[in-house]
Fold this sequence. Notes:
2 domains; Alpha-Beta Plaits; four-stranded antiparallel β-sheet; globular; 12 helices; alpha/beta; 411 residues; 23% strand; homodimer; 15 strands
Amino acid sequence: MNFLDDFNQMSTFGATPGGGVDRQAATAEDAQTRAWFTQWLQGNGFEVFTDEIGNIFGLYTFTPDAPYVLMGSHLDSQPLAGKYDGAYGVLSAAHAALRVVQNHQAAGTTPAYNVAVVDWFNEEGSRFKPSMMGSAVFTGVLPLEKALATTDRNGVTVAQALDLIGGRGEARRFPIAAYAEIHIEQGKILEELGKTIGVVEGTWCAYKYEILISGEQAHTGSTRMADRRDALLAAALFIVAVRELCDGFEVEQLHTSVAELDVLPNSPVAIAREVQLLADLRAPESSVLHVAFERLTEQIKAIEARTGCTVEIVGKSIWESGPFAGEAIALTERAAEATGHTHHRLVTLAGHDATNMKNIVPTVLVFVPSVDGLSHNEHEYTIDADLLAGLDVFSHIAGELAEGALDGVSG
Amino acid sequence: MNFLDDFNQMSTFGATPGGGVDRQAATAEDAQTRAWFTQWLQGNGFEVFTDEIGNIFGLYTFTPDAPYVLMGSHLDSQPLAGKYDGAYGVLSAAHAALRVVQNHQAAGTTPAYNVAVVDWFNEEGSRFKPSMMGSAVFTGVLPLEKALATTDRNGVTVAQALDLIGGRGEARRFPIAAYAEIHIEQGKILEELGKTIGVVEGTWCAYKYEILISGEQAHTGSTRMADRRDALLAAALFIVAVRELCDGFEVEQLHTSVAELDVLPNSPVAIAREVQLLADLRAPESSVLHVAFERLTEQIKAIEARTGCTVEIVGKSIWESGPFAGEAIALTERAAEATGHTHHRLVTLAGHDATNMKNIVPTVLVFVPSVDGLSHNEHEYTIDADLLAGLDVFSHIAGELAEGALDGVSG
Lengths: 411, 411
């Protein structure tokens, strides 16, 4: 059972010409990957089921009624994305769980806890907002009905999309002792420092705002400039304002972007009556985001005055920052040293399902290097040696967790 | 045969809740309107045929082999648009031609020329670029094969879309003595001056640029701000720069807009790798547009330097300004006076099929007032009295043209 062979085989689903994958949540390509993963789990003795929001679980039960050490990540991707983001973590979790099983079988022993593997549904949030949907429903921060009713750009709901791929089962909870996830860094720090293992000690805050800009549809040629209420001009001023928020803070203390934008009617000769966009603000401290948001609010007033449009916040998703438990950090450092790999503490700027899970159980998050820090791009790359080093460290962590390494640590 | 009854009936096709219409070129709603118009022409004794690019012609032949006075406009609309733009001109042309026929039948006379009516295909250009497609192919400025191969946002070609509605016939040309078109002003001048008939003496230039902006797809959260090449940020800076071009000129000497924009991958958490947009620059004089374009070129360099993206012009459509013939202007003024309506000379900022036709035959373009100047908006409105006044003047012009009023005038 060679990890790299499995990984290469899995990466053929939704493969893109540039070496990446394109398998947004509940598409045919996501379904192919899920089916392959389900078969892998079943073939290796795991009991597999899909829950009410499309999360796939594989359970290996040594001791009925004992809690499980859960490990996983997500198989869905951004459009035209890399093959490592999420998928590396899911396969590593499966291999690590299997190593725990095989080690105990070979030794004739039984660990304190059972082991389980998970593919969280729709971590990416590109087709259905918000991101980290499957783990948010599982941990109770997002109501199931709200998640199932979420629509994509074509009006298809999550419920419909899941049913179309046979991806929706019934709610089933099981006791969980700890959660662990391994992921590519999606940043440059490990590469720059020449370290192999990233020990995640905290997360940045992420505040995401859904913005609705309303203007008036009119003729692009004959309407006097002074009479125009151009929603796309207001959107452009907003995008620039969001970018310029960063100039008011120290370098790398605030990340901002607008990446999704839809125009109505989107005709070359009809001034836009409406623009919908999403603004993404992230910082290590929520205090930075509060100041940034205040400044943005001032900018919005100026944009409204200049363009005659209205700029409304019609939705928001807030993820606050938070530390991982000191015992979880120490466990990863011990595992790296036990397996002979260099390590470095860092924070995650991207959201991960571990961000949701750490609110309910003791949680470990481990990174491996990303070449050039590139991610959400089909040229995303992690060298094979780092993939295997990460798997070694993660398998060591899995074994320790199954022996109760984080017992008594609060989630 | 009541004009307003016909107009109201015609306005039911593609009707929108706000009182407008939505019938983009070769959609089901456009097809319904075309079918109704074809029946109207046939029912009133016109010989109807559709040409190779979907233009519908209705011919009334008094004298075989004599040239025709051609009159018309377009039945297609912008998305969520007004019911007057184009459609008023097509129906006025049909009624005016019928009046010429009935007047001669009643008098037992024969005019110097035959009369013909046209619905030009895809004047709006919202679904298939460029606008004024049908008249551009008819007058030879746009190659047929290029027009037929043009695709909409879903990859459907003009040829496929026309075939789907049975809207494509064979090329057939006939001698044309003159062309006349009546249209709503889509501006405020007539309303502000309290005049009923606009006598169009010239057109603004319109320069349209298709822009491709290329950046690099990356994670919106974890990618360092300094490492980003954000195509949507570059697009926003470009849109603002296009708007600010106007500040360098006298009021109403330059109109600019960006109204169509598409983002890839358009995911909330993946920085845009590509944006396509269309910039629309219009002015009374091409010298203004040359200066504006030079300044925009400088801005493009600054945007490229600031964002690390490339901004390329990948297509352009140029309509130069041009006067209508003095004799055509005088004819409209005489017709307004003969029918007892006030008139005022003005230029058209919007493009019309008459802009193409005036390059090949003597051409008349007449305007009626637009309430608040509003157009490309479902609340576009012209009062009934002005619709009927325009029809009276236009019918008078039709009668004069059929007697050779513009003979000897160069096209």
